[in-house]
Amino acid sequence: MASQVSGLQGTPVLLTLHYAYPITIFVYYIISSGVAICTLQTKSAEESHGRRRTIIWLLMFAILTYLAQLLNLVVRSLIRHEFPSEQDTIIGLLSCILVFGVEFAGLSESEKPVWYPFTGSFALALVFEAIMQTLSFIVRSPEPLTVAEFLDLSAAATRYLAFVLTLIAYLEGMYRSRQEKSSDAERQSLLKKASDLAATNAAGDQADDEAGQNNYGATTSDDSTTSDESTDDSRKSTTETPESPWERRQRQASEKMEKRLKEKGNWITYAKSFMVFFPYVWPVKNKPLQTRIFLVGCCLLAMNFVNVLIPRQLGIVMDSLGGTNGRNPWIEVLVFAGLKLIASEAGLSLLRQWLWIPVEYYSFDAMSTAAYSHVLNLSSDFHDSKSSSDIMMAIQSGQSISNMLDSICFQALPMLIDMGVAFVYLSITFGPYEGFITVATAAIFMYIATRMISRMRSARRSEVSAWFEEHYIRQAGIQGWATVTCFNQIGHEERRYSAAVKERVAKSQKVFLGYIFAYALQFLVLLSGLMAGAFLAVYQVTHGQATPGDFIMLLTYWAQLVAPLTFFAGLGKTISRDLIHAEQLLEIMQTKPTVVSKVDAPPLVFDGGHVRFKNVCFSYDKKKDILKDVSFTATPGKTIAFVGATGAGKSTILKLIDRFYDVTEGSIEIDGQDIRDVDLFSLRAQIGVVPQSPILFDDTIMSNVRYANLTATDEEVYEACKAASVHEQILGFADGYQTRVGERGIKLSGGELQRVAIARAILKRPEIVLLDEATSAVDTETEQRIQEALRLLCEGRTTFIVAHRLSTIMNADSIIVVTGGTLVEQGSHEELIRANGKYAELWSKQVFVKPKHKDASDDNSVTKGHKALGLINDLTLERTNSELAKVKSVSSLRDQSDSSTGSETALEDGSETEQATEHKKEV
Ligand SMILES: Nc1ncnc2c1ncn2[C@@H]1O[C@H](COP(=O)(O)OP(=O)(O)OP(=O)(O)O)[C@@H](O)[C@H]1O
Prior knowledge:
The protein has a 6-stranded mixed beta sheet, with helices on both faces. A 4-stranded antiparallel beta sheet has the order 2-1-4-5, with helices on one face. β9 (814-819) and β10 (822-827) form a beta hairpin. The radius of gyration is 41 Å and the shape is elongated. The chain is built from 36 helices and 10 strands. The chain is mainly alpha-helical. The protein is 70% helix and 6% strand. The site of adenosine-5'-triphosphate (ATP) has 14 residues, from α23. One of its GO terms (cellular component) is membrane.
């Protein structure tokens, strides 16, 4: 941009070039940076360029040459005592300073920038400068150069040189780093010996570990998606302060987002994955709602229009009052009032919200219902692996998707239009200078505001951590009040809490002060812009180029621009926070249930309840086998009891019958139908489950029992409860069947809870019963009642019991002994005792150690044994004696065979024999 002082301003091509030059550079820079961000190149830029600093200095020098040209122009105008007439030149120079200033800031802030937005701009600058120089020489008069022209030309030439050097420095730096890389590679392959390699690997592993432990900053920062430098900031501070649970959650969510972003490769594909939510935010099949959305769009455009009209009308009112435009002030004020009304909360805003509310609620309704339903339909593996609070938080985060759309559609887009219109309108009314001042002020304001937000991040984070710390200390003190009081630590807790509050207050103050200063600085920038604009307007009004009304219009317009600017400054942060929240829901919505009915699967045709396990293998995590080649058959109406040590896989077998999980290998058949081939709901409709620790809803007993069959009458519920021997007890409660049971049934005793659960199962009238018998100790009478209830429930139904009571085990038609996921024995009690295998071993241990009538307090050692095996000896003394008699005969048989086979087995069973002998004596 040279020779502008040589009187060539009238050349239309040059005039256009003066404007086109900075605009082209700016558009190129914005688009190429956008592409770099969208395709994640900003994240993968791994090396810093060796000549970055040199390039920054050269760029600064280039900016100074624009400034020098500008000064040259101003000084020349001052000498001539006239207002500079080369408007296009001045605007061009100022715009170049602004555009390259933005690039300068970008380059200075990023250690590892993506280079092509910068180098491309420099190359474009060289092309523009060359064309403009050539053109200006062609059209200039052949007179000798004046001093001003000479200075101007020198500045332009020096800048040209600076841009050339910038590109050379860039290329040289690239070449050098390539050279270094290749020589590094050569050196490494030559120098590294096996021992060095081992050492390096170990060090690398350690470094990786450390990085893994401290990788918070790399992924957590809210703005990490847009600024490399900011991630460094957060990394630094993470090493200083321990992570709070809140931070951990945020970090994990953010890590997930980063991971998926990397997988997707760019922001566009990443954003596309959010299309799953489209049917919930856009009323696909609802025409009236779609019409409303269209009308909301019209309202927004109308609002943009009114936003221009209001300042303009105020200007007209002012001019009509001053008599400069010959209009009737009364009418103009009325028009102004009308426009204000339209723009107010009682006008377009009201209409827009009235139109929008049903759409918003549609979205809220559709999103929450879909998320909840999706979660309920997911399989056991998902629910087992997630904490319920995480799932609930994720469902709630559906709101952030609506928020994000709200921010973009109803705030960002209209504000962008407002700002564009402001720029054009002010440029037309007051000339390009005013337009430039508006744009420059907006750019500087945005830059400062985003920098401030990013700088405040670590202060805000430690404030939130302090909030949580305070909360935890308070909660621990109140929840553990009894412990605090017992240990006489009230003073200690008071001091701890007071210190936490002080810490939090100090941090809050720091953040608050930070905000106050940040706002002050932002408004100073705005004020400077306003002042510059106002001075220019005053100049034009005093020179008759504009009216006082125009001046008022300018002031009003400026006031209107403050809100959009502040909003835009925080937009990136808001959107990235909403994205992180939405990501949690997205992850859930993308999870597919692993156990589902096949398409058009027929319902289960029940025919007696013949259940068959065929070579079933199962693993929860595909790593550890839980069941190995399990095969057995259950005859209709019979009871199968599973016994075995804890963790053997008994409950897992029950879960497979109910299809909470699918077998990994083999199959399970009910009446000849593979349970994977029948409709899942028809399968579960035939199965009644009484879990070991039944969970009731925080509702009345009536509702809890009726949950098994929502259409059951009160009478049917009473019958079920009578069958479960709990009816009388329920009637004894203050509110009878309307008694609320508390969260998870906390207000009921263990025995009551279990019988209510049995009643619930009875009401379902299942064909197959799955029972995880409780091991919890209940009094003898309750236990008998439970047994009776269970007997009624299981009568005539194929029943599978994870048995813990000896009486249940012995009464079962068939007993299966499970050890380490395999079936080791199967048969009736008598058969298994006679077989004298694992079952006889397990059983005899129990029957010897704790006959039912015995006082539990006198044999603690025995109770330990119980827990390991999960069995309870609930036999009566007479039954114990008679069973012992059988065992005695088996033992004597075994003794005989032992003595004949040698001493090995005797040694193995030594402890058991000792124990048995002791108890035999006792009995
Ligand atoms: N949801 C799960 N995910 C992963 N592993 C599991 C899961 N549930 C159980 N396991 C593992 O499977 C194995 C068998 O568990 P299972 O509950 O079937 O044992 P069990 O014989 O019923 O024991 P207990 O009598 O103590 O209830 C155990 O090692 C357990 O840790």
